[in-house]
Design a protein that fits this description.
116 residues; mainly alpha; two-stranded antiparallel ribbon; 5 helices; 2 strands; 64% helix; elongated
Length: 116
């Protein structure tokens, strides 16, 4: 028993000396040996989250076009673009584009006009 315990303690000591701490991981090999392995730092852009946010923006604008109608929506955008810089930026983001108009007309055709 003492020989196994001593070997185990030796492996732990070697892992601590090798820097298997912060930023490192360990891998257990098929024979049971624990080997330190450096973790790869993965810095990537969250493309999936960005795509989801853009899709939600299009859906929201399409819903608003369906709910208010194209003419009223355009009038509200014109009113919004005559105000401060922040309002102009919001008007630019919420501007009518072909995708949002298509979503609005598809909702109108599928559901009908919104209740008043």
């Amino acid at each position: 028993m003492d020989a196994n315990y001593d070997r185990f303690q030796e492996r732990l000591r070697r892992m601590n000396q090798s820097g298997a701490g912060e930023g490192h991981g360990v891998v257990v090999q098929p024979d049971g040996l624990v080997v330190p392995r450096r973790r790869r730092v993965r810095l990537s852009f969250p493309w999936r989250s960005l795509a989801l946010a853009v899709i939600c923006c299009f859906l929201f604008k399409g819903f608003m076009i369906w709910h208010q109608g194209e003419a009223d929506y355009a009038a509200r955008l014109a009113e919004l673009s005559d105000q401060s810089t922040g309002h102009r930026a919001a008007a630019w983001v919420l501007s009518m584009d072909p995708v949002s108009v298509w979503i609005g007309t598809t909702l109108r055709d599928a559901i009908g006009r919104p209740p008043v």
